[in-house]
Amino acid sequence: MAPVRSRAATLARRAEIETSALEIVQRELAQGRSFTEISFVSIAREMGVPRSTLYMHFRDKTELLMRLGDLALDEIYTSAAAWFVFDHSSGPEAATKAGMETLAKFREHRDIALAVIEVTTYDPALADHWYTHVMEFVDRAAAALQPLQDEGRIAAGVDLKTLAFALVSMVERTATVHIRHGDPADDERIASSVGRAVWLAIYGDA
Questions:
Q1: What is the pLDDT of residues 25-66, one digit of tens each?
Q2: What phi, psi does 174 have (nearest 5°)?
Q3: pTM over cut 0.70
Q4: Which CATH class, in words, describes the domain spanning 62-203?
């Protein structure tokens, strides 16, 4: 039984270190520091462990951000799926609620999402990771639209994956720019406008 307890203790310690490192980065971002300003040295110092300990758990600082980003993006994209499964029969107005939920989730994870997007501009590994994540969601969105096309509610000639990619890109870009620079008081206006664009792109030529 001793080896079992030892393994359990090792796994618990590993989880503790990884969670602590992620929490430190998340807090630093929330306090306004850019990701480039956060170093393994400072993280290790705050945790009271050697920097080499972090390298046992994360390949580099980018992997740490990937892990944080995956947690945030899973929630954001789960919320964003509502853009493709709202009550389409009632027109573009129904998309506003879906848009508000997506913007709220972006705001909840604002610091992490913006850090990931910033780092993708100069880190190919994170850019590729982000693209893979986005395309997985694009595939799910296209699959959600397929039954509507089968019913004739979406024009037969529409390539659903291309359409989903264009709409996901539009929603993501609009949301991130608005979250970074816009006024929260304008969330409903943004959600309504983007929702109308999404609805027209899906059904406009059906």
A1: 999 999 988 888 998 899 999 999 999 988 888 888 888 899
A2: -60, -45
A3: yes
A4: mainly alpha
Angle at 189 between CA 201 and CA 79, to 5 degrees: 65
For residues 73 and 67, what is the distance between their CA atoms, to the nearest angstrom? 10
The 3-state DSSP composition of the chain as helix, strand, coil percent (nearest 5) reads: 80, 0, 20
Domain with CATH 1.10.357.10 in the chain: 62-203
In single-letter form, the type of residue at position 165 comes to F
Residues 114/171, Cβ–Cβ less than 8 Å: no
- CA distances (Å), 101 to each of 7, 68, 115, 153, 182, in order? 41, 21, 21, 25, 16
Q: What is the tens place of the pLDDT at every residue in 98-144?
A: 788 888 888 888 999 889 988 999 999 999 998 998 898 899 889 98
Residue intervals of the chain classified under CATH 1.10.10 are: 1-58
Contact (CB, 8 A) for 102 and 79: yes
CATH 1.20.58 matches 1-58 = no
CA 38 to CA 60: how far, in whole Å?
12
